[in-house]
Write a structure and sequence with these properties.
The protein contains eleven helices and ten strands. By secondary structure, the protein is an alpha/beta fold. The chain has a single domain, classed as TIM Barrel (Alpha-Beta Barrel), CATH 3.20.20.70. The strands form two sheets. An eight-stranded mixed beta sheet has the order 1-2-5-6-7-8-9-10, with helices on both faces. The protein has a two-stranded parallel sheet with strand order 3-4.
């Protein structure tokens, strides 16, 4: 299906804006500057354990809120990505070798933070044969050993260039939630996510369910990149065909002037409309707000996701 950009005439805020100018950031997208003791404590633990977080590397707008509560999304396998997605602020280049001691440091940090739920993500590592699958598995096992009561959510690369069996390695380590973001509608992949393939990512998530039907699957997209509503609806249908449980939708924010431009700021009412449509299509859990990110309120959302499945199965 071909994705068409929404005409400016349908959005008055774009009608008199030059093509190269960015739309003004609306009030609903503003957040408080990070600070406070909780934020400082989380920052200290991350530095003591020499750990990277996607909160910092990707410039997440929610870092102040999350870190003040001791919630940080661990980013393993270094700070340099082998891909060059135009929406992402993580550095692109040639990464260092994998650190075999990193899984233990992640587990120790999770224990010290006292996390009930942890999100672990990574850069893309196309330079490694298995794409870092075994490193993910080692990290999951290390957290299980040091913090057995912590539920684990992983946000993985697509393993597009990995050796056979990479996905199986990660699934066999038994994370509670397997997340891989589709990021945008297929028609925008060449300009937004040029190193990836939409249907490969979709199939990856479908394969997770085939390998372990009990594992929760999750995926997310950004809006405001130039997609239209019909394209978003089609992505939802594709996700449900792949039996994805949890959908996140958030506003794209341009990290620097060199990154993909913001096409427009989607209103809170439009996000509510997307949420209603997604639940109507059968998702167990939906988070759709301007500031939604994959790991935002992930622990609370996981509890709701589990309750929703139990209710569906008549176990509540």
């Amino acid at each position: 299906m071909r994705d068409l950009k929404i005409p400016a005439s349908r959005h008055p805020e774009k009608a008199h804006r030059p093509d190269n100018a960015q739309p003004k950031k609306p009030d609903w997208i503003r957040v408080k500057a990070p600070g406070g003791q909780g934020y400082a404590d989380t920052h200290r633990i991350m530095r003591e354990h020499k750990l990277s977080t996607v909160c910092e590397e990707a410039g997440c707008p929610n870092v102040g809120e999350c870190w003040s509560q001791g919630h940080a999304t661990m980013m393993i396998m270094g700070e340099i990505c082998t891909r060059g997605c135009t929406f992402c602020n993580v550095a692109t280049g040639r990464p260092d070798a994998l650190d075999v001691f990193e899984p233990g440091r992640v587990a120790d940090a999770v224990k010290k933070l006292g996390l009930n739920h942890v999100v672990i993500t990574s850069v893309d590592r196309d330079d490694v044969d298995d794409g870092g699958a075994e490193h993910f598995a080692m990290t999951i096992r290390a957290v299980r050993k040091q913090a057995p009561g912590t539920t684990i959510e992983i946000l993985t690369p697509d393993f597009l260039k990995s050796s056979p069996g990479a996905l199986e390695t990660v699934v066999e380590a038994k994370p509670d939630v397997f997340n891989h973001n589709l990021e945008t509608v297929p028609g925008l992949y060449p300009s937004v996510r040029p190193g990836a393939r939409y249907f490969h990512s979709l199939r990856l998530l479908q394969r997770v369910k085939e390998l372990d039907p009990s594992m929760f699957t999750k995926s997310g997209i950004m809006v405001g990149l130039g997609e239209d509503r019909q394209g978003v609806m089609q992505v939802m249908d594709d996700m449900r065909a792949a039996d994805i449980d949890f959908l996140t939708i958030g506003q794209y924010l341009q990290p620097t002037p060199k990154h993909h431009a913001v096409d427009r700021f989607v209103t809170p009412d439009e996000f509510k409309s997307y949420e209603k449509a997604a639940y109507g299509k059968g998702f167990l859990m939906v988070s759709a707000t301007p500031l939604t990110r994959s790991s935002y309120h992930a622990g609370d959302d996981f509890a709701r996701l589990r309750d929703a499945r139990n209710a569906k199965l008549g176990l509540a």
